[in-house]
Amino acid sequence: MIKDDSSVNTTGTDTKMEILNATIELIREEGFACATLRRIADKAETNLALVNYHFGSKEKLIAKAIGMIVGTFDDAFALLEDESLTPIERLKQFFYRYQQHLQQYPGLAKEMMDQSRLILCSQHEYVRFSKVMRTEKLLGTLREITNETDETVLSGMLAQLYGAVFYPVIMNSYLSLGGEEPAQVHLPDLKHQVEMLFSLYFHKYSQN
């Protein structure tokens, strides 16, 4: 279970953490589509009223769960600190490892993109999300690679890279669903897609 070291050992906090852990476990086991408030309450062995009391809405609960899930991707973020790698290799390895983690939670990539409305409309959520995602470190790595100083350009590049990394994970998730025979879509494996992305996106920088 994912623990919150900042929690205070009170009954209310314990119940809140149990609900969060139950949410994360349900997402890992069955995906976001199955993470209804009622099923979360059942898994946490609590009642629906307490779930609503602690989180107010499913949207807020899922947002908190996503933050806690991404906060466990430490080995991916640690690659951004590996000075034995070139900046472009650090970023490439980060995104590859990040994709591996996303695949462990069915629907996580799509849900993170869906949460962008909530994040961008709330200054508090944006600051919290940026800290979880180590945005400043990622922008710093991009700055090393490109020598770009315009923060707007760097933020745009980061958004484009995340979109390019998330989309294949979402596509793979859809193509793996049962039911109707899927269209004949042939995608390279995810590692190869990251290699392709970086060879095209950073081509001019790798020549410097």
Instruction: Tell me roughly what share of residues is in helical segments.
Output: over 70%
Mean pLDDT: 81
The assigned structural class equals: mainly alpha
The number of distinct β-strands equals 0
Our Rg estimate from Cα atoms comes to: 19 Å
Largest sheet: none
The unreliable regions are 1-10
User: How many distinct folded domains?
Assistant: 2
Q: How much beta, percentage-wise? A: under 5%
Which term fits the overall shape?
elongated
Instruction: Give the N-terminus to C-terminus distance in angstroms.
Output: 46 Å
Would you list the SSEs in sequence order as H and E? HHHHHHHHHHHHH
Per DSSP, the total helix count is: 13
Describe the protein in words.
This protein is mainly α. It folds into two domains: 11-57, Arc Repressor Mutant, subunit A (Orthogonal Bundle); 73-206. It is built from 13 helices and no strands. Helix 6 runs antiparallel to helix 12. Mean pLDDT is 81; it is low at 1-10. InterPro entries: Homeodomain-like_sf (IPR009057), HTH-type_TetR-like_transc_reg (IPR050109), HTH_TetR (IPR001647). Pfam families: TetR_N. This is HTH tetR-type domain-containing protein.
